[in-house]
Amino acid sequence: MTNFVHCRGCGIQIHETALSCPQCGAQQNLAPVSQRVAHVGETAKARDLTDYSQVPFFRKRWFIVCCLLIVTPIAGLLAATGDLYYSQKGEVKIFPKSAKVTFILLSVAWVAFNLLRS
User: Fold this and answer.
1) Paired residues of 39 in beta bridges
2) What count of Cα atoms within 13 Å lies in the side-chain half-sphere of residue 88?
3) What gap in Å lies between CA 83 and CA 111, rounded to an integer?
4) What is the pLDDT of residues 6-41, one digit of tens each?
5) Cα(14)–Cα(82) distance, rounded to whole angstroms?
6) E-assigned strands of the chain?
7) Element (H, E) at 103
8) Is 20 helix (H, G, I), strand (E, B) or coil?
9) CA distance 30 to 111
10) What is the pTM of this model?
Protein backbone atom coordinates (compact mmCIF):
# COMPACT_ATOMS: atom_id res chain seq x y z
CA MET A 1 0.00 0.00 0.00
CA THR A 2 1.43 3.34 -1.04
CA ASN A 3 0.76 6.41 1.08
CA PHE A 4 1.28 9.99 0.05
CA VAL A 5 1.74 13.11 2.16
CA HIS A 6 1.89 16.80 1.33
CA CYS A 7 5.29 18.47 0.95
CA ARG A 8 6.18 20.76 3.85
CA GLY A 9 7.49 23.35 1.38
CA CYS A 10 5.22 23.56 -1.66
CA GLY A 11 2.28 21.30 -0.74
CA ILE A 12 2.37 18.84 -3.65
CA GLN A 13 1.74 15.18 -2.90
CA ILE A 14 4.89 13.10 -2.44
CA HIS A 15 5.55 9.57 -1.21
CA GLU A 16 5.65 9.30 2.59
CA THR A 17 9.23 7.97 2.59
CA ALA A 18 10.64 10.83 0.50
CA LEU A 19 13.50 12.60 2.28
CA SER A 20 13.07 15.73 0.18
CA CYS A 21 10.52 17.13 -2.28
CA PRO A 22 11.38 16.42 -5.94
CA GLN A 23 9.78 19.74 -6.97
CA CYS A 24 11.03 22.31 -4.44
CA GLY A 25 13.76 20.33 -2.62
CA ALA A 26 12.34 20.97 0.87
CA GLN A 27 13.51 18.47 3.50
CA GLN A 28 10.75 16.26 4.92
CA ASN A 29 10.58 15.13 8.55
CA LEU A 30 10.49 11.38 9.04
CA ALA A 31 9.86 9.45 12.24
CA PRO A 32 13.03 7.90 13.69
CA VAL A 33 13.73 4.42 12.33
CA SER A 34 13.29 2.95 15.83
CA GLN A 35 9.64 4.07 15.80
CA ARG A 36 8.74 2.35 12.53
CA VAL A 37 7.41 -1.16 12.05
CA ALA A 38 9.36 -2.93 9.31
CA HIS A 39 7.79 -5.24 6.74
CA VAL A 40 9.98 -8.00 5.39
CA GLY A 41 12.40 -6.23 3.07
CA GLU A 42 10.91 -2.75 3.57
CA THR A 43 10.08 -0.19 6.22
CA ALA A 44 6.41 0.40 6.95
CA LYS A 45 4.83 3.45 8.47
CA ALA A 46 4.57 3.44 12.24
CA ARG A 47 1.70 1.39 13.61
CA ASP A 48 2.19 2.59 17.17
CA LEU A 49 4.49 -0.36 17.87
CA THR A 50 8.02 0.49 18.90
CA ASP A 51 8.71 -2.70 20.84
CA TYR A 52 7.75 -6.36 20.40
CA SER A 53 6.31 -6.38 23.94
CA GLN A 54 3.55 -4.04 22.67
CA VAL A 55 2.25 -6.66 20.21
CA PRO A 56 -0.80 -8.56 21.54
CA PHE A 57 0.13 -12.15 22.44
CA PHE A 58 -2.30 -13.58 19.88
CA ARG A 59 -0.47 -11.74 17.07
CA LYS A 60 3.04 -12.99 18.04
CA ARG A 61 4.98 -15.69 16.19
CA TRP A 62 5.03 -18.18 19.10
CA PHE A 63 1.23 -18.12 19.38
CA ILE A 64 0.74 -18.64 15.63
CA VAL A 65 3.14 -21.62 15.65
CA CYS A 66 1.28 -23.16 18.60
CA CYS A 67 -2.02 -22.68 16.78
CA LEU A 68 -0.64 -24.31 13.63
CA LEU A 69 0.45 -27.34 15.65
CA ILE A 70 -2.62 -27.69 17.87
CA VAL A 71 -5.70 -26.07 16.27
CA THR A 72 -4.81 -25.00 12.74
CA PRO A 73 -8.02 -23.03 11.93
CA ILE A 74 -7.21 -20.50 14.64
CA ALA A 75 -3.96 -19.60 12.86
CA GLY A 76 -5.88 -19.12 9.61
CA LEU A 77 -8.47 -16.96 11.34
CA LEU A 78 -5.78 -14.77 12.92
CA ALA A 79 -3.98 -14.46 9.57
CA ALA A 80 -7.21 -13.47 7.82
CA THR A 81 -8.13 -10.80 10.38
CA GLY A 82 -4.92 -8.82 10.78
CA ASP A 83 -1.15 -8.54 10.76
CA LEU A 84 1.06 -11.14 12.41
CA TYR A 85 4.31 -9.91 13.98
CA TYR A 86 7.73 -11.23 14.89
CA SER A 87 10.91 -9.74 16.28
CA GLN A 88 14.21 -9.79 14.43
CA LYS A 89 17.37 -8.06 15.69
CA GLY A 90 15.31 -5.88 18.02
CA GLU A 91 12.94 -4.67 15.28
CA VAL A 92 9.25 -5.49 15.03
CA LYS A 93 8.51 -7.11 11.66
CA ILE A 94 5.28 -8.15 9.97
CA PHE A 95 4.85 -11.55 8.37
CA PRO A 96 4.70 -11.23 4.57
CA LYS A 97 1.41 -11.70 2.75
CA SER A 98 2.58 -15.06 1.37
CA ALA A 99 2.93 -16.45 4.91
CA LYS A 100 -0.56 -15.24 5.80
CA VAL A 101 -2.00 -16.92 2.69
CA THR A 102 -0.15 -20.13 3.62
CA PHE A 103 -1.68 -20.10 7.11
CA ILE A 104 -5.16 -19.61 5.63
CA LEU A 105 -4.69 -22.43 3.09
CA LEU A 106 -3.38 -24.79 5.79
CA SER A 107 -6.46 -24.00 7.88
CA VAL A 108 -8.83 -24.70 5.00
CA ALA A 109 -7.01 -27.96 4.21
CA TRP A 110 -7.18 -29.03 7.88
CA VAL A 111 -10.94 -28.40 8.03
CA ALA A 112 -11.55 -30.16 4.69
CA PHE A 113 -9.48 -33.16 5.74
CA ASN A 114 -11.39 -33.52 9.01
CA LEU A 115 -14.76 -33.16 7.29
CA LEU A 116 -13.92 -35.76 4.65
CA ARG A 117 -12.55 -38.14 7.25
CA SER A 118 -15.85 -38.16 9.16
Assistant:
1) 42, 94
2) 11
3) 22
4) 887 888 888 877 888 888 888 877 554 444 444 444
5) 27
6) 4-6, 13-15, 38-39, 42-43, 85-88, 91-94
7) helix 97-117
8) strand
9) 45
10) 0.54
